[in-house]
Specification:
The structure is a single chain. By secondary structure, this protein is α+β, with helices and mostly antiparallel strands.
Length: 143
């Protein structure tokens, strides 16, 4: 099994890419420095993608955006799952379109749910029940 180490700093990667472009081979640099020749070739390919000359793979900025969108998607799915456990309403877009509003019992609390966007809901409850509902939803998120 290979060793695990911290990622190389971006400046170090840039220097390795520049040395390859200046004529040194990845294998030669791998012997002289710590990264493997394959890592150096990967950095070279990523650098070409970032400059618009790549093999069609994602640029660094696109990869960062993709990761951010995946995190956001996971969060939205979790929030939707929690909300679906909180009330006995059908939250599909067909049954509960954007702009819809419904009064229901949420965790033994009377409340109003308003769909603001496809994956965004607002819950209104009496202020005296707000802390209880928040704790209940937090507990539901742990399941």
């Amino acid at each position: 099994m290979g060793k695990t180490r911290a990622a190389y700093p971006p400046e170090f990667r840039r220097q390795m890419v520049e040395l390859v472009r200046a004529g040194r081979s990845p294998e030669e640099l791998a012997r002289e420095f710590e990264p493997t020749a394959q890592s150096i070739r990967n950095w070279l390919a990523q650098s070409a993608r970032n400059a618009g000359r790549g093999d069609g793979g994602l640029t660094t900025a696109e990869r960062e955006e993709l990761n951010r969108l995946r995190r956001e998607n996971r969060q939205l799915r979790l929030e939707r799952e929690i909300l679906s456990k909180a009330a006995t309403l059908d939250f599909s877009l067909g049954a509960f379109p954007i702009g819809s509003c419904a009064q229901t019992n949420i965790a033994r609390t009377q409340g109003i749910i308003w769909r603001r966007a496809a994956q965004e809901f607002v819950i209104y409850v009496r202020s005296s029940f707000a802390a209880y509902l928040r704790a209940w939803l937090d507990d539901a998120a742990q399941v």
